[in-house]
Amino acid sequence: MSVVQRLAAGWLVDHLSFINQCGYEICDSFACPGSVTLKTSTEGCHATSAFAATSSGDGPISGPGDAIETECKPTKSRYVFHEEFFDVSKPHIAAAPEEQLCQECPGMNLTEVKKRKRKCVLNQGERDALEYHSKIRKLIWEGTSQLVQEGLKSGFLHCGTAELSCQKNVLPGHIGCGLAELCEMAKQFPDVSESCQQAVHVLHDKTSIAEQDLLSRVTENSSNCAKIVVLMGQKYLVPPKSSFLLSDISCLQPLLNYKKKYDAIVIDPPWENKSVKRSNRYSYLSSWQIKQIPVPALAAPNCLVVTWVTNRQKHLRFVKDELYPHWSVKMLAEWHWVKITRTGEFVFPLDSLHKKPYEVLVLGRVKGGQKEALRQSEDVLPIPEHKLIVSIPCSLHSHKPPLTAVLAEFIKPDVECLELFARNLQPGWTSWGNEVLKFQHIDYFTLLQNE
C-alpha cells in the first residue's frame, strides 16, 4: 500500500512504493525447462526467440526442427522506478532550529516575519499569501508532526542521516522525444473520419504504434501485464488496466468519444506563473482556457473533482469562485500536500516568504439530483474539510503523489477515474495530457530481474 500511516490529520504516503506496486511486469517469452533461450533484443525491447536442446550424456542432440514435449512457462521482466528520484535526505533550504518539526509548534510571529520584509513593501499577492498561511499554519504543523512521528516509529522515516544510504547512482538526464511538441505537430495530420476509426486502440503484443493512431484515439491496456509502446523511437511502460490519450487541450474529442463517465476526476492544470515564464519548462493555460475543459461532459453524477492549485491566492480564488461554479461543482474542502525529507523535515521552511513546503488541493462534487446525492452519501464517507497528504516528493518536476489510496474511502469501489494534465499512468485510471507518457519512459525504470 502507498499509505504508510493514516491518522485523523491525514496520510503519510510512500509515492515510490505506489509506483512499484503498479505491476510493471512484461511477459517476455516462453522458457522451457532445459532449453536455451536466445534473446534478440534491442535496448529496452523484448523480442525473443527460443529453441530447446537436450544434452543428456551420449544422447543425440535434437535439432530445431525436432518436436520436443516439454512444459513451457512464461518469463517476466520486472521494472522498478529509480529510487534515487526520491532520495531527498536534506531540506532544499535549511530551517532555523526553532522551526524544525522535532520541536513543539511555535506560534507564528507575523510581526517578526514582516520585519524581515520591511525593507521592501509587500505587494497584494504577498499579503494575501501571508494571511492564508497564518490561517492554515497550525493545521499544517501539528498534522505533519503527528504523521512524521508515526513514520519515524515505523522506520519509514529515519531520524538523522546515519541510517541513510550513501549509494548514489547516475540518473538519466533529459529523457523522451518531446511529447508536447509531438502533440503540436499532430495538428497537421490529416483528419480521420470518425466512421473510419474506432474510439479505442487496445494494446496487444505489438508494441510499435503509429503516431497518428496514438494521438487520435484513446490507447488502452486491458491486460493484467504491463506493455511497452514505442513512440518516435522511444520506449514507454504502460501499466496494466490503464488507458490514456496523448493530446493537447485542442484535441480532446477522442476522450469524449471514449464515452466513459468518471466518478473521480483529478486535475493538475499548467498554471501561469513567473517561474514557468522564465524557465519555459512547459506551456501554461489562461483561466479562460482552463474553464473550457469539458468536465461536465466527462463527469458522472456526484463526481468527485480534485484540482491541484499553486500557492498563489489568485488561482485558489479562481477555482473556488469561478471554475467550480462554471462546472456546476460544489466546493467542499481544501487539503494540503506537505513535502518532507527522509528525516521528516520540511523541504522548505514552513514560514518561508518565498517557497512553501506545501501545495493545495481543492475538492468538490458535481451537483446532482437530490436522490442521487442521498444514494451517494449512503455508499461513501463525506469529504473532510481538511486533510494532509505528507510524502517525500519526487525530484522530477510536477510528479505529484498518488491519490488513489487516499480517495478510496470517498468514492465507490471499482469506479472510473480520470486524471487531466497527467504526466504518468495508473492502473484503473484513464489519463490525458500532452505529456501523459513523460514519466513512463523506460529510462526512469530499472530492469530488476527476470523471473
From TrEMBL:
GO terms for molecular function: nucleic acid binding; RNA methyltransferase activity; site-specific DNA-methyltransferase (adenine-specific) activity. Coiled coil: none annotated. One of its GO terms (cellular component) is cytosol. It comes from the Eukaryota. GO terms for biological process: methylation. InterPro entries: DNA_methylase_N6_adenine_CS (IPR002052), MT-A70-like (IPR007757), SAM-dependent_MTases_sf (IPR029063). Belongs to the MT-A70-like family. This is METL4 protein.
